[in-house]
Structures
1.
Amino acid sequence: DRDSRRETPLGPILLPDGDEIIFYANVSSVLDAQRAEQDHASGIGLVRTEIFYLQHDGDWKYEQQVEVYRQIVNIYSRGPVIFRLFDIGSDKKSTREIKEDNPALGYRGARLLLGEPDFLLEQVKALLHVIAEYRREHEPRDINILVPFISEPSEFFRIRDVIEAQCRTMELEVPRVGVMLEIPSAVFCMDELATRADYFSIGTNDLFQYFFALDRTDPKVSSFYDPNSQAFLRLLEMIVTATQRLNIPVEICGEIATDRAMLRHLIDLGFRTFSVNPYVINGLKRFVQREYAPVK
Ligand code: PEP
Ligand code: MG
């Protein structure tokens, strides 16, 4: 990294106009959470909870869930933490294999959670348990929940209902709950989603896959992968414009922002918060600093 001799700013990058560019970390392991802490990520923008579940071959007990969620909020001590509900199916397969011809278009994410209410409720309880415990023992911190693979509003509303009902049972203030925009249809109902979503997180890996009908796991088609394409940028522009009109926070999640040309496009479109794997955050910060806010 040719910027590596420069000092890396610890916090967000302040642009000359006063805006901040914020980098969060995507976390798929406890090690990732350590790295996020060590490299001063401004938050954890995504905990892929399903990875932990899949590592236990689908035999991940309630107590074990609680323990891992607790570990993550303790290891990473600084900013917000976003726990995504299990996004199982498609490329994130479980051993309770369901045979499907088109798993990417099949029983995955929110669909699976709604199809297995006990499974959903167990995770909601485990997350709320850790959130409640944290609130009792620490200064306020935004620890919240993100719902994956939403294609239309009623799916999100039904899952949010489950979270709210459980909060009533536990006499707990409802944490923020966000929607992943990763299926193109969801982009066309952002107004309705925003009536009950606290923020949007754009799952660019999947949004790209479903927008271009391009399997993210198939190396034969990966050479067609150009996120800098006009069509995709127009879709992202639609999203950022809608979030500004609706006055709702949005973050870009996924590896797209690690491509520097793309990161420039995204910043120029108006995106300010990016969640990427923690190992690249310092390099990206130095890049943004150099491009947008050079130190005199
Ligand atoms: C995405 O889809 O862009 C995303 C961040 O989630 P995942 O890669 O886990 O599907
Ligand atoms: Mg995704």
2.
Amino acid sequence: MTVRIGVIGAGWIGREHIRRLTGTVTGTRVTAVTDIDRSRAAEAAAPVGARVAADGAELIASDDVDAVLVTSWGPTHAEHVLNAITAGKPVFCEKPLATTVEDCLRITEAETANGRRLVQVGFMRRYDAGYRQMKQVIDSGAIGEPLVVHCAHRNPTVPESYTSDMAALDTAVHEVDVLRWLLDDEIVSAQVVTPRSTRKRFAHLRDPQIMLFETAKGVRIDLEVFVNCQYGYDIQCETVGEEGLVRLPDPASPAVRTAAAHSTRVPTDWVGRFADAFDTEFREWVARVAAGAEPTGPSAWDGYAATAITRATVTSLQEDRTVATDIRPRPAFYGGAA
Ligand code: NAD
Ligand code: ISE
């Protein structure tokens, strides 16, 4: 079966995923594209033979769309995801699931009422080979119980439109999701401390920020978010346990020795750093959709937890205090005991 996909949002990642779904992942066809900027939708649709849909609602309802991919701006995600649930169609939503906790809960409630999982959230790090290897090591017990995690999330630069709260909502949200999964644990509090800011930033931005999280089992996490680091796109993660530690491998790149120096490349953006993870993420999602099965990737509940935790992180930045995340007990529908 060929899965016919409708794409809402033809910006940077929307175009990346259209390319991926037509050129890399087998068993799919992009049949419809929509964007509030119609010319952008037309540019993305033409090369893959898709039609331009009038808007998200029309695309979701139409007979030529089996499954929906939401890659529009974050504040618009909830509306499209809720429409897809109402239509009974599988929906893959790029992070964040929604920008408010209330909208995330509306989505989990709608999905629960629907009776089967339809939503997957685009937290692609769970599909990265290095993170998967780290998880195997932690789950095997080889390093003992995890105690501390040290992370860094660095982007070379960000545009002027990037604001201080985006360090949590847009950037750290990836660590928040992958660490909950890696540790099989919940984040219960968040705190932000700010060193002096780099001069290589727009004046309104606090950058870097150091985020400190505590989990229900008592693991402490420190995360440096530095989005104007200049030198590359650099993702680091090290988990320290009672009997050893495990470190996320850097992506493989040739080791070059020349002019009395030894060097390996650092990626320059998320597109290259996580290309394989995105491919795997979509292969696995499409296989489930084609089989008529529920998705196995990050759920609407994970999307809710990530938004609640990053919102608490923003509150900490604004109010200079440690903030409880107040995550609700996980319902049985999402694999919990509640
Ligand atoms: P972008 O600004 O390049 O593209 C967003 C597009 O959505 C724009 O073309 C805009 O016109 C369109 N749009 C806005 N509202 C719409 C609506 N109601 N209906 C249809 N189209 C609408 O942004 P981007 O970088 O492509 O990011 C899009 C989403 O993907 C964001 O949620 C972002 O957080 C996420 N993202 C994820 C990753 C990742 O690593 N997983 C990386 C980048 C972006
Ligand atoms: C962007 O939206 C992403 O999701 C990238 O993975 C992240 O590194 C970047 O900071 C975000 O702005």
